Each structure stands twice: as C-alpha cells, then as structure tokens.
C-alpha cells in the first residue's frame, strides 16, 4: 500500500466513526421498522424506571436472540447501554422467558394461562417479585417470548406507556407464511426488489448475515414460515445437494421461529427419482415421496411442509393420471404426516372449457372435494377468483368449503399494482377481503371467521403472502412497500386488526414519531389503495394490463392463445356498454356465491359499484349513484386517481424537512413515476374505451397527451 493510502484510511475511519456517533446513519431503509434510534429525553425519563435492567435466564439460540434484540433495542431507544443481570437484583427489570427457561417466570405461576395461549402466545405484565417491580414477558414457548420481546420494543418505539402493563396475545392463525417465488438461478418471479435473498451457490458453506435479519423482521411481526422457492418449482430443490443448502437456511431461521417450507414439482419422482410415472396412486411414487420426506426431516427436523402448484399454467399434476386434486394432495400429506408436516395445495387452477368463465373455474374444480382432503392439507386460495387484481370480490370458495382448511394467499409483491414503483398500502385491500361476508352460515360469516377456525373449528389455519423482498438494500424496492410486508404479518397474526392501527405503528417505527407528521403519512397510506384502483381498474374492471410483465395498461390485448389471457375477454366492451355479465344472462359465475350476497351482486341495482363491471355488462348511459352515466363516471374515476397522486406528491414534498433526506428523495422519485403511470393508465384506457362509447370526455378530465395508437404500441417502462 502506498504512503498516501495508508494516511487516508485512519482519517476516513475517524470521519465514519464520528458520523456514527452523531447518529447520522445511512438512511437506506435496511433496518426496516426495527429502528432503535434514541427516544426523546422526556420519554427516556419516563421509561427508565421500568426498564432499568434485563434478565433473560437460561441458554438457547432463541433466548440468545431475545437477549440480543432487547439489548440492542433498549440500549438504542434509551441512549445508554442497558444492564444485563442474571437475577432480579433491582427495581425495574424486564424478565423474559418460559416457566422452564426462567425460574423467575416460573415463580409467577402463569403456567395454566400460558399453556392456553400456546407456545407462540405471550403475556406482558407489570409484576412484583420479592417486593421488586418488573415487567414480565412470559410464554409457554421461547418463540412466544421472542414475540413478546418485539411487542415490548414496539410499545417503546411507538411511545406507548409502560405502566401497569397487562397484555395477553396469541396468534389467531397457526401458519403465517411468506411465499417466495424465487428461482434457483437467483431471479424472482414477479419480484421487484432485486435478486433472491438466498444465495444458492454460496450455500451451505456461507450463510449471509442478511438471512438472520430477514428472520428477525419476520419474527417481529409473527411470521413463522417461509416457502423458499417459486411455486413454478424446479425439481432440483429436492435433490440432496439443495436440501443441504435448505438445511443451512433453516438453521439460520430456527432461533426466530421461522420454519422453512418448499414448493415441490409434482413430477419430481420422474425427474429426480427416475421413475416412469408420478401417478399419486402408484405405490412406488408414494414410496419415493415418503423416502424424500424422511430424508428432508433427517436434515431439517422442524421442516414445515410442501406448497404445491399442480395442474395449473402448465405445471404437472395428478390430472395426467386421471387422478384428482385430493389424490395428489393426500398422497403427499401421507408422506409428511409422520413428521408433522403439512401440504398447502393451491387452488389456482383454471382449465378452459367451452363456455367457461375463469372466475368460476377453481370453484368448479375444487368444491367437489370439500371434506376429502387429509387432516394435514390446507387448500391455499387466492383472495379473489381471478388473479391478484387491484380489486376483486372475494373468492367464492371461501363460502363453499366448510369441511376444508382454507388458507388465503395474498400477494404482497405488486405484480398488478405498479411493481415497487407505486405507493399503495395493501392492508386496505386485505381488510376488505377479510371483512367480506360469505353468508356461508348466515350473516356474519366473514372470510376472517372462515379462515381463523371460528366458524368451522378447523384445527389447522393459516395465511400466505407472496413476498415482496429481495436483495435491494431496502429489501422491498419502495420504502413504503415495507409496510405491506409488515401489514401482512400483523394481519396473519390477527386478521381483525384495523389498517389504520397497522399504518400508525409502522409509520412511527419507520419514519417519524412526530404525531402530526405521522398522521399525514398514515392518511396518505390509507387513501392510496382506493386511488390506485381509480387510476388502474375502477368500477370492477380487471385484467386489462399489458400481457407478460403486467405493468401498465393494454385493454385492447386480444392476441393470446387462450381467450382468458386476453384483456378483451374480461371487459367485453362494445357499442352498448362495458363489463363481464356474470349473472344468469351471462356466465352465471355469480351463482358460486351464497344468497343473499349472490342476489345482491346479480342485481345491477344493488351490486356494489366497486364490482359493477365485474358482474355486469353495463350500458354506457347507465346512471350510477352519482347521477352520472357510466362513461362519465369511469372517466372521472380515472381522473380522480391521477389527482390523488398529484396531491400525494405535494403532501410528500411538504414533509421534506420532517423525513431524512435520503428516504425522502427516494420516495419522491417513486411518486413521480407513479404520477406518470397514473396519467398513462387514464389516457390509454379512456382512449381505447372511447372507441366503443363514442362519447366525449366529461368536463374535468384532462385530454390525453398521445393518440391511442401510441399507447397500443408503447409499453410503459418501469
Ligand atoms: C400469476 C403470475 C404468475 C404465477 C401465477 C401463480 O403472473 O407468475 O406463477 O400467478 O400464482 O399471478 O401461480
């Protein structure tokens, strides 16, 4: 090294060190919502008597993780290193553990209550032991204690009081799982935040530190499972070589209570095992899967199970052998059952038949199997009947399979919602879905009650979210997309949570503790979903995006080999009007729903306007609730969406001095793209539908910048 470089290094490290000590950290979003920057002085003074020391008795990887998180969190938030003690030696300790790991917790005699809450539930309570005050975080399981530790940190991060705590929590759903559509080559199907987090070529020798941070983030919101690979699965994931890599990931996740699962390829016995068939009823096939399961569990004793996309979009499945979904799922379930694993069988199946409507396809294929699946099978059903559109009515299967363990699949990654360019808070969409009344057992049979076991008492419950994470430094591409990962975890823990509460927590933990600023950001988030629907697919429009990549509009698309892969199949625009008639005069897919919601949807006068064009072919001059014609209302909705994005940009700009410059600028750049895209959607879609409606744009709607021809030949760039 030359002299000059030698001299520069100490200077540089001094500069970096002083930056760090001044609290100027790179605001690149890496820390997610787990930011432990020091609280205001007054708050610290208020908290200090409650959190003077930390006592985590016992030894285990999870207990070590708890200790580490609380030391980092408390020290950061309070601005001084927290004292770690072996016993309760002063007032104001935090004691954490299970009755087995911690003699102090055992002395609280909470065993009965803790057992009822299960190994993931917890109690946070202000207690007295030997006359000393303490906050106890107690659970029947160490992972539950970890969840409790994150809860306490969240209280502090969001500046909640710590006096007289009495919090009792348990997850409403058992499996709270991220689905990663990651390929073995490191690419991610529908991923918009860089490459896969799993570096298969380095594994198992090297396990990236980032995997631990991923597991921490998951645990902090109660996510307890991760399907590592794409549902369009590569059989090699089950090879001995890859299973060793998977085991290394499982080892990294284990302290945080995150179990690994794998997507399997149904024909793997042929591709990997060299068998002549993958027929689920062939004994050699079943034996191959049993042996494979044994091999997996010998490496990963707490392996979660399989996720299966079969007989869907070209993926192999039981149909080749004239076997049913139940035959396929139950054969796999039998292989996993001795080890306690589960099968998540996807309901995303839609084989074209003459006169068929894709919105009824999965219902028709799967409803007949209600009650036919093995006890360790869950049927994983997308929230809506088509495919993760900006807005869909709930999937009718949620009201039709009382004897099946239904597990919703939500899409956190924004395949159809502007990738990682658009700010949209998805908790609003998920709330609408979970609150939908299926009327399966009369009024009040909401999706939330169907899936959490309260309606039918299923033993196994769960929720899956297609992850939006990747190798980008900020994990999700857009800083605000982190909120959707957060919201998914919170809703999987408690499907009854209000989006406002989730947004408030997240904003305070992530961007600012200033209540007025937080409120402004929260409001933006809460409005963002409806705005996106306005500028993409208002009034029940769906599947009108550019084919393949799905970014930007292409309502004119009619070139795909399958009719139901074309936009024109879904909107059915003609001289008379717009929309898909799914009533008795059309496909009658509405009959998949239970009365009275079926009749409500089927009647154009009572159908909620947000689903109008989903269920009805509506004349251009039909009057909506606003008194305006369909055409005018449609045009004004698109304009309203654009107006919102413009207002959001102004609002964000006005917050410049309240958010760190780095994240502020990055979000501002994304909002500029969002405005460009919203304008583009409005112009392209309205110009195209105008060729049918033959009516002028109503006053208040801006004229498009280009001709229809331009939009039809130009794909929007992301
Ligand atoms: C669609 C995606 C496709 C997925 C498929 C699925 O476009 O990439 O493979 O869903 O869920 O939304 O299987």
TrEMBL record:
Record's keyword terms, sorted: Carbohydrate metabolism, Glycosidase, Hydrolase, Polysaccharide degradation, Xylan degradation
Enzyme Commission no: 3.2.1.131
InterPro entries, per database record: A-glucoronidase_C_sf, GH, Glyco_hydro_67_aGlcAse, Glyco_hydro_67_aGlcAse_N, Glyco_hydro_67_C, Glyco_hydro_67_cat, Hex-like_dom2
Keyword Hydrolase: yes
Transmembrane feature ranges: none
UniProt domain Glycosyl hydrolase family 67 C-terminal: residue ranges: 476-700
Gene Ontology cellular component list: extracellular region
Protein name: Xylan alpha-1,2-glucuronidase
Protein family (similarity comment): Belongs to the glycosyl hydrolase 67 family.
Active site (catalytic residues): 313 (proton donor), 387 (proton acceptor), 415 (proton acceptor)
One biological process term in Gene Ontology: glucuronoxylan catabolic process
Species this protein is from: Pyrinomonas methylaliphatogenes
Gene3D superfamilies reported for this sequence: Alpha-glucuronidase, C-terminal domain (3.90.1330.10), Chitobiase/beta-hexosaminidase domain 2-like (3.30.379.10), Glycosidases (3.20.20.80)
Keyword Cell inner membrane: no
SUPFAM superfamilies, A to Z: (Trans)glycosidases, beta-N-acetylhexosaminidase-like domain
Domain Glycosyl hydrolase family 67 catalytic, first and last residues per copy: 156-475
